[in-house]
């Protein structure tokens, strides 16, 4: 098993032992990006975290930038955005 963590340790991606061809692309304070080769179109996994106190627009901008670089690939984004709900808060 291989795992990759973000700078703050709040975001991570864990791969199964059978995924020996995973390629680590980037890790930021609140993001981790890993690519899985898959024939003609690789699959890119993006894990992201945004704390309740953070600027949500800033995180969305970073995700949009990452997506613009991966235009021709399959992408899965797994964000923990801690969105505010008027009924129960964060």
UniProtKB/TrEMBL annotation:
Ranges where the Endonuclease/exonuclease/phosphatase domain occurs: 44-89
Gene3D superfamilies tied to this protein: Endonuclease/exonuclease/phosphatase (3.60.10.10)
InterPro entries: Endo/exonu/phosph_ase_sf, Endo/exonuclease/phosphatase
Domain of life: Eukaryota
GO MF term (any one): catalytic activity
Protein name: Endonuclease/exonuclease/phosphatase domain-containing protein
